[in-house]
UniProtKB/TrEMBL annotation:
Family to which the UniProt record says this protein belongs: Belongs to the L2HGDH family.
A Pfam short name: DAO
One GO MF term: (S)-2-hydroxyglutarate dehydrogenase activity
Assigned keywords, A-Z: FAD, Flavoprotein, Oxidoreductase
Species the sequence originates in: Acinetobacter larvae
Signal peptide segment: none
FAD dependent oxidoreductase domain mapped to chain residues: 6-395
InterPro entries on file: FAD-dep_OxRdtase, FAD/NAD-bd_sf
Record's protein name: Hydroxyglutarate oxidase
Cofactor(s) it depends on: FAD
Gene3D superfamilies: D-Amino Acid Oxidase, subunit A, domain 2 (3.30.9.10), FAD/NAD(P)-binding domain (3.50.50.60)
């Protein structure tokens, strides 16, 4: 019997998945989730592309490759057994030139190494059989890639946590975690503390994860640098020009993928997301400026090193930030019939992207244990796809329950 007391910081999909996994594995445990907002899943978990990634791109053997594959299976199972919408619409990664075909072949080989189901390479005519309006010289087709609403999944997990006698405390911003003689105290602002102590804590604080980790005695780097991603919804009359997901071949010159077509689970067709530095970690309107957040990245040497190495990428992204027409044109390279489609802006997402002090973006998931406190320090995309597998990994492998 395990009647230990666990604190989970952050009610995004990862924090909720960890809380659920603890209650599944240890039904007698006491699990308390602390979320600073008035509800769960108000940040990345409800501001993303909604894709259940099949695991095409990730370095075989890395955490992303392993947890994405397992996570995709678990998300599918969770949606189907809980009546949550799940659409296996499939995805094409499309090469437009011979040079891109070489890189596409490398992705195909990785997807085989990662055992992604049913992937195959298509020629130009075969592309038309899947996406009649799409042009390309070759494409990688992943028919098992799906779309969902991660916000809906997170809210369903929150209900399940309560049914399993877990507790979710919203409106509770945790300032710091301290550990003494194997007991963890949860501190809030104004010298306030939670009235019970905990045996273990898991911090899943997304865009605030580096700050909470540092205040709780973990190492300072990597730091979170926020990059927003803008989406546009295309005129609904034209949404059927694309059936599923159409992606470019990633270019190693650019740290982010470039805009693409993403079908939403509500049936809308979106273009996006681009990627540009955000003047606030939680600034979704793009109109405000958070002085503390901007000061944080401007005084980080990693940010300046990243910027100096990525000027051409910044320019590419800036074009899509500055002009809606450029944004649409980028995507229309793949579907020319949508070159002049009218679009309306949709809510942004803001990526919690970890950056090392040498300016490199951390690619793989980073999960660090320090004493009885575990910190998720980097969980970018496919972090939502992987959430249920990240939870299994943390509960069954990272945490020691001795
Ligand atoms: C633009 C964009 C597109 C993406 N597309 C996809 C995709 O298609 N597929 C995919 O798999 N992944 C995608 N991702 C990644 C995915 O959204 C994230 O990996 C995932 O949502 C991370 O979940 P999380 O719970 O770790 O973080 P979050 O959802 O950000 O949750 C963190 C929570 O912690 C809370 N919190 C923070 N600090 C404190 C504190 N001090 N005290 C209490 N609570 C605190 C926050 O309020 C928040 O609720 C995308 C992300 C972005 C931004």
């Amino acid at each position: 019997m395990n009647n230990k007391h666990y604190a989970i910081i952050g009610g995004g999909i990862n924090g909720l998945a960890v809380a659920r996994q603890l209650l599944l594995d240890f039904p007698d445990a006491k699990v308390t989730v602390f979320e600073k907002e008035s509800d769960v899943a108000m940040h990345q978990s409800s501001h993303n592309s909604g894709v259940v990634h099949a695991g095409l791109y990730y370095e075989p053997g890395g955490l992303k490759a392993r947890l994405c594959r397992r996570g995709a299976e678990l998300v599918k199972e969770y949606c189907l057994s809980n009546n949550i919408a799940y659409d296996e619409c499939g995805k094409l990664v499309v090469a437009l030139s011979q040079e891109e075909e070489g890189r596409l072949e490398a992705i195909y080989q990785k997807s085989l190494a990662n055992k992604v189901p049913d992937v195959r390479m298509l020629n130009a005519e075969q592309i038309k059989e899947i996406e009649p309006n799409c042009i390309g010289t070759r494409a990688l087709h992943s028919p098992r890639t799906a779309i969902v609403s991660y916000g809906d999944i997170a809210r369903h997990i929150a209900k399940e946590i309560k049914q399993r006698n877990g507790q979710i405390c919203t409106g509770r911003a945790v300032a710091q975690l301290t550990e003494k003689a194997g007991k963890i105290t949860v501190h809030f602002d104004n010298n306030e503390q939670y009235d019970a102590q905990f045996d273990y804590a898991v911090s899943c604080a997304g865009l605030q994860s580096d700050r909470l980790a540092k205040r709780s005695g973990d190492i300072e780097t990597p730091k979170i640098v926020p990059f927003f991603g803008q989406y546009y919804v295309i005129d609904s009359q034209f949404k059927d020009h694309v059936k599923g997901l159409i992606y470019p071949v990633p270019d190693p010159k650019y740290p982010f993928l470039g805009v693409h077509f993403t079908k939403r689970i509500d049936g809308q067709m979106t273009i996006g997301p681009n990627a540009f530095i955000s003047f606030g970690r939680e600034n979704y309107s793009g109109k405000k400026f958070n002085l503390g957040d901007v000061y944080d990245f401007l005084t980080y040497k990693g940010f300046w090193k990243f910027s100096s190495k990525n000027m051409s990428a910044a320019l590419r992204e800036l074009k899509t930030v500055a002009s809606q027409t450029n944004f649409v044109q980028e995507a229309a390279k793949y579907v020319p019939s949508l070159a002049s489609v009218s679009v309306a802006p949709a809510t942004r997402g803001i990526r919690a992207q970890a950056m090392e002090s040498d300016g490199s973006l951390v690619d793989d998931f980073v999960i660090r244990k320090q004493g009885n406190i575990t910190h998720i320090r980097n969980a970018p995309s496919p972090g939502a796809t992987s959430s249920l597998a990240i939870a299994e990994y943390i509960v069954r492998e990272v945490m020691s329950h001795s």
